[in-house]
Amino acid sequence: xxxxxxxxxxxxxxxxxxxxxxxxxxxxxAFVAVKDVDLKIDKGSFVTLLGPSGCxxxxxxRSIAGLVTPTSGEIVVAGRLINDVPIYKRNIGLVxxxxxLFPHKTVADNIAFGLKYRDVPKADxxxxxxxxxxxVRLPGVEKKLPSQLSGGQQQRIALARAIVIEPDVLLLDEPxxxxxxxxxxxxxxxxxxxQREVGITTIFxxxxxxxxxxxxxxxxxxxxxxIEQNGTPEDVYRTPATKFVASFLGQSxxxxxxxxxxxxxxxxxxxxxxxxxxxxxPASLKAGSKVTVIVxxxxxxxxxxxxxxxxxxxxxxxxxxxxxxxxxxxxxxxGMKLQANTIIDDxxxxxxEAVDIAFAPSDCVLLxxxxxxxx
Amino acid sequence: xxxxxxxxxxGVWGWRAVKIVTILVYIFMFAPILVTVILSFNASMFGGFxxxxxxxxxxxxxxxxxxxxxxxxxxxxxxxxxxxxxxxIGVMAAIALTRHEFRGKQWMNTLxxxxxxxxxxxxxxxxxxxxxxANQPRSYxxxxxGHIMLALPFVVLVVQARLIGIKRVxxxxxxxLGANRFNTFREVTLPLLMPAIVAAVLLVFTISFxxxxxxxxxxxxxxxxMPTQILAMLKISISPEINALGTLMIVITVxxxxxxGAIARILSGNRQ
Lengths: 375, 272
Ligand SMILES: Nc1ncnc2c1ncn2[C@@H]1O[C@H](COP(=O)(O)OP(=O)(O)OP(=O)(O)O)[C@@H](O)[C@H]1O
Ligand SMILES: [Mg+2]
Description:
The complex is a heterodimer of chains A (375) and B (272). Chain A has 375 residues and is of the alpha+beta class.
């Protein structure tokens, strides 16, 4: 486990850019699948493209791989402009959702496939195949056919086949989504460990936010072919840049209101239901602005009596989902619908009970009228 | 319990009826074949029942019949040539039609199967008229070209069906690993396509070998294929020799597809 700790800081120190997309746009007929995307990916980092179905994640991956050609913009991989380089000359590792192992070739021949086209001597091929199998923790399956392996094992072979050619970048398109939930979590950890071990630049596509948060150095949140936010998992989770990011990742409460007083890094806001709250705010914020206040469901405290110094709202429990250690409350706060995910310390509140809701000014993120975070 | 039993009883009768009908259908389908095969071993001078003894004399006679042997050779050559050309062109057409986008693809897709839908007699006359207009004599080339035209749609259809089933990601994976388009085809697409190709070759061979309608129109003067030869012999008499010949034809045209099926199954079995 040592390498995980040591390399994560090393990765951040390395500033070489492995993949650089400059103004990439890709259209299918009249439909714009990817709009003017700028994206730099650090060498050795693990970057996740996260977004709802159809937002253009696969399209970006395929354009880096060379399976589709961007309508405009530049793609630079390892310092080389590759727009006009055919896929088989790009040196890119691809792993697909459904493994795509050659069904008529043995595991060894599958892994050796890319090496053969790189003029690697025969003896070296054998050694590399063996090492790749060790790496994915499947030693000794050389002679088997893909159909004789389980889904999880096949995906490991697919990973080995892509990594063994030492590609400039490894592209993974929802590689875990065909696996069942338990295996998926196991593979998630393993994939991350292998990626760290090899130190390979990886672009991972998923629409599973948990996967993204757990595995990534950076998350690129996409919607409708646009990048909504590009940041560390903590960044995108704690300080969503747009309304879309706030509602796509985790459970957020969105409260609209008007700034009545601003200054000293904080603002007083009158919410639309009449309640007055205080929120951390950028210096540029002016009184009179319309804002949306975002507070994570986990950051709302629910109790009979809220803590001092925090913002307080009055509410009534509309529904309770009791989950053992935690509870999810749907709350009606004087006309405003809120959700609170809380850890239960002594008491579970039931439907109809009156409660106080509290949250700290520092847990508020403010969005302007364009639904973007105010900075 | 009572109604339940009654239902079971009627169910049993229902199934029995289905069985009987099935058997009758099979008898109806296979009786002519069986009769031909049995009578080919008949010792009698006449081509029909009753059997007067078992003998291989008609086969012996057949193998001494120059005309039959020549027709047989002609048919085999034409079928082989048709199969070879159709397979190469058909596979290429199927790939173009499934893997590439081009203008008029939809039209091509429909047009390529047209010869399989138009009655053979009409195709026969049509091609002949075309040749007449071009002032060309009937020749072997015309005959082979005609057979190719008749059989090509089947290759395209069979190979296309299989190609649609071969996921594109296999080819994409090969390309991403550094194989160019040709090597990707050779190492990935072709092996996965093999069962369909084997099936197509045998199907085409059989179609060509069996064809009579179109061959009657297209053959050069004095040339007989196996089926036209049989027809010519039948015009004279129903000789037991024809039964022997028919039996051989059955063995070839039934045996080949069965063999092909077996090969295809082994080829795809390797990958299960
Ligand atoms: N070959 C194509 N022709 C036309 N439209 C396409 C094509 N491929 C993708 N699209 C469209 O482009 C958009 C982006 O597709 P893409 O596959 O990149 O989405 P995605 O983010 O990977 O979604 P998912 O999570 O469902 O895989 C989609 O709306 C899709 O319908
Ligand atoms: Mg996708």
